[in-house]
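seq as requested:
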Amino acid sequence: MVNLTIDHIPVTVPEGTTILDAARSAGIHIPSLCYLRGVNEIGACRVCVVELSGMDRLVPACNNVVEEGMEVLTSSPKVRETRRINVELLLSQHDCHCATCVRSGNCSLQTIANDLNILDLPFEKKVPETRWDRSFPLFRDASKCIKCMRCIQICDKVQTLNIWDVAATGSRTTVDVSLNRKITQADCSLCGQCITHCPVGALRERDDTRQVFEALADPNKITVVQVAPAVRTAWGEFMGLSPEQATVKRMVAALRRIGFDYIFDTNFAADLTIMEEGSEFLQRLKNPGAFKAPMFTSCCPGWVRFLKSQYPDMVSQLSTAKSPQQMFGAVAKSYYAQLLGVDPQRIYSVSIMPCLAKKQEAALPTMESAGAGPDVDVVLTTRELSRMIRAEHIIPAELYEEEFDEPLGVASGAGVIFGATGGVMEAALRSAYCLVTGKNPSPDAFQDVRGMDGWKESTFHIADTPIRVAVVSGLGNARRLIQALRRGEVQYDFVEVMACPGGCSGGGGQPIHDGQELAESRSEKLYGLDAISDLRFSHENPSVQRLYKDFLVRPLSEKAHHLLHTDHTAWEMPLSPENQKN
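struct tokens:
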């Protein structure tokens, strides 16, 4: 152990601890901008500088380790003045129109500038111009970039896609798409992790709330909204709601106040996905010569984009089942339009997702199965939902709880856990077991695939048949698994992949809490909802059963294939630079 003082307070920490972590362990705040533990520890912003007794120069606290007897001052006059100058220099190249920034009130730079009482700037203002394709789901505003390099590091070290890189030199140094590409030419998965790890508003999702408000005001449109499982765990965070206040039913009430005609649960479509994907898996399992193992899940569009760009020769191993979002859209504009007795063209289908890639998925030419335009017209992130609630001056804590509409609002606990890494696999195995044996397993029989480990594997037996499964989250882990498969080091029958670490709960469209990773705590909420659900199996969902009986006939039927399955090779995705060379 190492003994030191920080602001004259005795502190004892393990050897190798950084000054920043030592201070935090003692409850002493040192501001930082560029620091991300284990990912970005380069000391680029110089905001976390501290003074060490006996040393003239200041040192960054994020990448200097403690030493025995060290005396640290975190807020001396010298530290405060230097920190102030460093932040003023950052602000001199930063668009400070905070009123028009989505991160206003949730911006680390804004917070630090306020803490330092910076009221004017002594340096010449020089803000770079933004040139960007505003139709792309991910938007980068160069005028707000502070060159912290977080986006570069999270994309390189965690997601292994290398989309971002340093561009230009000297005072013109900035961050841009690597290899002089436009973002539309890059093999970006649209996972959105660069957005959730940006400390300012330099990266954000394309905002689609305006067109939703326009649809809500159109008397000729019937607005139908679906809400993804992971959204219910996070929607209230932006508004400071407690878990007791931010209930699913209160979220439904808020959506009704916004003006949606029908409010449904994507978990219904998750149950439907299990019926289709589970049936497809069993079909492949029975015909090993006709299909190459393993079968990969296909409900995460970020993962699908990754596979198409990095390993295009393995696309045939994806399940042909659409994601729950797209299944819901197709059902809403066919089956539900029929139930309502309306022209499907009148239905305006909105989905609220924890994800950016869903925006691009909904726009694919292969996602118009119902014959009424795009099956999903607009995709909003959880953050956009929060902004809509705020724009309508709704106070969710004061709302009475309300139920989802039927029949597309009925869902099982198996559908709920889709939002957690391992949830799709667990839900699929629950129903696959019943489809094979004719009886339900224990709902918790497949818990081995739960947890935040980036790569989990297990073997389960269904009617004496061993099923080798793996679950990965984070594209860096997906790459490691695929490379191990290619080298013959591992063999699986069924693999679940989620692009974002921790699954959809940690999705790129979720609320941003700088420096905090909340996927695990959000996932625990989903498992809690599953545990108290009256329905624990997708195949027991009465609304799904009715859908098959009255409309789809059975899983993998001709109509089910038309509406609920897709051809992953029917659209183009930019290849990785390595694949382009080949």
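The chain has 19 helices and 17 strands.
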